[in-house]
Known about the structure:
single chain, Ubiquitin-like (UB roll), five-stranded mixed sheet, 1 helix, 31% strand
Amino acid sequence: MVTINGKKTEIPDGTAVEQMLLDEGFVLQRIAVERNGEILPKASFASEKVQAGDVYEVVNFVGGG
């Protein structure tokens, strides 16, 4: 179980962060991700694995004028 933006979510250990984000409906090009208090670089989304107890904060960027 991990926490994404304050919501407990069942994600299997070993799932790539990228896959978790896609499964949760995030658009990868428009987000920033913090895991356990540290910014997670986009380049590592595919290689980093989810672990039980992780806490993610995902911020969506929006355009406007």
